[in-house]
Amino acid sequence: MDARYKSREIERRSLDVDGLKRSFLEWLVYSVGKDARAATRRDWFHTVALAVRDRLVDRWMDTTRTYYQKDAKRVYYLSLEFLIGRLLSNSLANLGITEECRKALDQIGISLEDVVDAEPDAALGNGGLGRLAACFLDSMASEALPGYGYGIRYEFGLFEQRFEHGWQVEYPEQWLQFGNPWEFPRPEVLYPVQFYGRVEEFRDSVGEKAYRWVDAERVLAMAYDTPVVGYGGNTINTLRLWSARATRDFNFGHFNDGAYMKAVEQKVLSENLSRVLYPNDATEGGKELRLKQEYFFTSASLQDILRRYLQHHTTFDNLPDKAAIQLNDTHPAIGIAELMRLLVDQHGVVWDKAWDITRATFSYTNHTLLPEALEAWPVRMVERVLPRHMQIIYEINAKFLNRSKARAAGDNGRLSRLSLIDERGDRRVRMGNLAFLGSHKVNGVSALHTDLMKQTVFADFHAEFPDRINNKTNGITPRRWLHQSNPPLAALITSRIGQGWIKDLPQIKALAEKADDVVFREEFRRAKRKNKKRLAAFIARQTGIEVQVDSLFDVQVKRMHEYKRQLLNILQAIALYNEMRDNPTIAWVPVTKIFAGKAAPSYHMAKLIIKLINDVAKVVNHDPSVHDNLKIVLLPNYNVTAAEIIMPAADLSEQISTAGMEASGTGNMKLALNGALTIGTLDGANVEIREHVGEDNIFIFGLTAEEVNDLRASGGFNPREVIASNPSLKRALDMISTGVFSPDDPNRYHPILQALTDGGDHFLVTADFAAYCEAQEQAMELYRDQEEWTRKAILNTANMGWFSSDRTIMEYATEIWDVHPVKPEHVEDGED
Ligand code: KOT
């Protein structure tokens, strides 16, 4: 190798300031093709990202080679969503070169923050489920686990949300518009995925009945790899996302005029498969393209997994010892039928053996009990799109129901509930039942949610397989959600207890004793104040609203959904507004209510709630009689990047879902870790947060899941009576219904009022209103005593160690996957 080339190679890996600086200048000119004077912020982002990427490629390859050479058991996390956000600061922090990079850029006259801010936010997910997948990738790499993420490389991520006249309007999110420096296209990693066609029966070589799928349409799945840097930069795992490509038939065919245009149209249509992320959170659309997306990425991933396995093995007997496949909800559950198809039809494995292998390989995480989110595909659609899979599902079902018949003697209801086919109305395939049956372990995402799974949707399956359901309470990565997003608090913590907490979050417990230290409290408050100033500036930039930094920042950020009850929050805001106007002489605790969240484009009620919040904000924020003691802000386009600014600045964390409806929540964890006090119901992981932070350091209110269940079952709940007996609630609702907030259209909020009254108030907003207001008053009272508030805030941060996704992921690794940490070695050859 020539010496110049070699020295450049070494330079590419240099982690010091000079090496970084030289690299930046070289990348800017030779790859981005710009001169330093002409370079835009975006050019600098691409430059820095490419230079940083150079510094992880070697270790990435070492990691992959080590897994290969050791034939390590891998875990494959199949998820239709990965809500990653930005990667530059994350990569710098995990490689430990943030300060070196900052200095190198300073010397060129560029600010690192500006560069970081030029990165688009990769929003390949809707909310909690997708963000959890991203936290898990970080934790798997940080724990040196051989973990791969598999998903779809959507060209358009979750829509961009803007408000026009207070209404949500959706715009396409074009995150790939200017290229993505983190991804490596792998045009050679290409798998065919089939749709439609029919199944042919034939006799195999030993005269047994066999099946083949013929006359199908084909699409190719092409891989794009993104390195996933673990903390410390030693393990660098892979996120492999599939993009749809038309088959080569198109490229090589020759056509007459008409056929040519048709063929091009066909190409565009088949490549639409990976065009756009479905924007529904916890609702199921039932659209054919969605089913095709699910099968597309699952099939490509399974083909890739088997290809990797076959590099070391000749039979499939050991597949479960070498591969664990985790289904992130039922979206990839068709993979159970697909693995059966690949094993039986393509590799000649006998059915019973294939079934044992399949069940031992798969496990399934359930993320919601909401009936509208449980996937159930029309049988007629599955028959048409995936005819062989429909047969396989029937076969699995027949064998299972036959076996269960004996035990279900006399209970036909039980058998029909266990069936993979819902025979009521148009027949449907129950993907949850398929996922359950085809997995050796099934988990919920918080203790309460797992219990409810056993009692409700999976009660019959639980009776049949009592060891299958287990709990894995969610977690969040402390790297992104404290170390990276909250520099003032991270620095304070490290100054007192060292930096061990970044990798081992339970160490943060050592802060608990400092809650009584007045100096520490002062510093903790100062860190919070800095973050609040940053958020106030962000709010001013995004909305033009000026907020008081020293007001109580009361934060509810999450998808807009009736069960999450943003409505309860805004009703309390109206009640507080009225009290402030009625009692102008009281020294009110100034409050800033901060909301953010997207509504699914077809979810009219959620969109109407957005409009209501914006309408109430307009009235309240301009009313001089409240003396700026109350401000209401609805930030547009909530995403991971916005969350990184909001979470560190919150005083109060709103986790107020109808008990029993939020599977876990993870925003609740991010906020508490950053020192916000929770006001919440006993729902999802709030229950466990209370146990860890202590009941004196959290505001719990409202009906429990059991009470909700009983109240609904009794049929005796009458929201009109509740409203009539609560003057402050009645007044708030009257103001809405008489057009105080919508003078241009007084009837605008009729659907909301209707839902809360004649509609029966399914989400029990009115039932919890009084208890919620009381809890809010307690919070405001406590906030007057800044020393006591800070003490509790510190105790929240100190007691959140258990909620690290490192803990969650190690529980999956030991209790479900049986995968173990593998430390990468510098090895020379091998392949993936
Ligand atoms: C379900 C179907 C389609 C799209 C999204 C979902 C979904 C999302 N189901 N649950 N979630 C959220 O997952 C988070 C991570 O486990 C939970 O914390 C949260 O409570 C769920 O709502």
Keywords:
single chain, 832 residues, alpha/beta, Rossmann fold, nine-stranded mixed beta sheet, six-stranded parallel beta sheet, 34 helices, 24 strands, globular, binds 1-beta-D-glucopyranosyl-4-phenyl-1H-1,2,3-triazole, 1,4-alpha-oligoglucan phosphorylase activity, transferase, EC 2.4.1.1
Describe the structure.
- GO terms for molecular function: 1,4-alpha-oligoglucan phosphorylase activity.
- Its cofactor is pyridoxal 5'-phosphate.
- Keywords: Carbohydrate metabolism, Glycosyltransferase, Pyridoxal phosphate, Transferase.
- The protein has 832 residues and is α/β, with parallel strands linked by helices.
- It has three domains: 1-70 and 87-120, no CATH class; 71-86 and 121-474, Glycogen Phosphorylase B (Rossmann fold, 3-Layer(aba) Sandwich), CATH 3.40.50.2000; 538-799, 3-Layer(aba) Sandwich (Rossmann fold), CATH 3.40.50.
- Helix content is 49%, strand content 16%.
- The strands form six sheets. A nine-stranded mixed β-sheet has the order 7-10-11-4-1-12-13-17-18. A six-stranded parallel β-sheet has the order 21-20-19-22-23-24, with helices on both faces. Strands 14-16-15 form a three-stranded antiparallel β-sheet.
- α26 links the parallel β22 and β23.
- The chain is globular and about 90 Å long.
- The model is unreliable at 827-831 (pLDDT under 50).
- The structure holds 1-beta-D-glucopyranosyl-4-phenyl-1H-1,2,3-triazole (KOT).
- Residues 126, 128-129, 132, 281-282, 329, 367-368, 373, 445, 474, 662-666, 684 line the site of 1-beta-D-glucopyranosyl-4-phenyl-1H-1,2,3-triazole (KOT).
